[in-house]
Amino acid sequence: MDIEKRVQGLTERLQYIQDIFGDRENTNTQLLKSKLSDFLERENNAPVHEQVKRMLALEDLFAFLEKKLERGLTSMDRVRIVRHPYRICLKDILENVYDNYTEIGGQDEYNIDPGMLIARAYISRRVGGKVHNQPVMVIGHEKGHGQEFRNAGSVKPWGNAKALHYMKVADTENIPIHTYIFTPGSYPIEDYPGAAQQIARNLYEMAGLAVPVISVISEGGSGGAEAIGLADVRLMLSHGYYSVISPEGAAAIEGKVKRGQRVSPELIEKCAEQLKITANDNMAMGYVDRVVVEPPLGARPMHYDFFKTLRREVIQATDKVVLDVKGWNFFRAMAVRYRKKRRVSKTENIYVRWSLNAKARERLVWRRYRKFRRMGQKAYQDSSPATRKFFSRCKEAGWSLYSLFKYDLLKKQKKKIDHAVEEISGEILVLKDRVLSPWAKLKGRLGGNGSPGSSRRKEKSLTELSYWEQDSGGFGGNGGGYVSAQARRDRTVTCPRARTHGCLDLWAPDLFGDFAGICNYCGYHFRMEYQWYLYNIFDRDSIFEFNEWVESENPLSYEGLDLKLEKIKRETGLKSACMTFEARVNGIGLVVAMLTGNFRGGSVGAAEGEKFIRAAERARKKHFPFLAYVHGTAGIRIQEGTNGVIQMPRCTLAVRRYIEAGGLYLVLYDTDSYAGPVASFLGCSPYQFSVRSANIGFAGPRVIRETTGMDVAPDYHNARQALSRGHIHGIWARKELRANIHQALLTMGGRNLYYR
Amino acid sequence: MDIKALLEEIKASPFTVVEVAAPHTGVVEYAVEETGFGVVGPSKSWWDGPGTLLGTISRERNKKPLYAPLKGEIETVFSEWAGKFVEAGTPLFTIRHYLTKDEVIKAILKQALYLFKAPERAKYYFVPTVDKKIKGEGHESVRVKDGMDLFIVSRMKRETVLAYGGPQGIIYAVYFRHDENVDMGRPLIGVCPEDQLSLIQDVVRRVQVEWEEP
Question: Which residue in the set B44, B46, B64 is minimally distant from A494, CB to CB?
Answer without folding.
Answer: B64
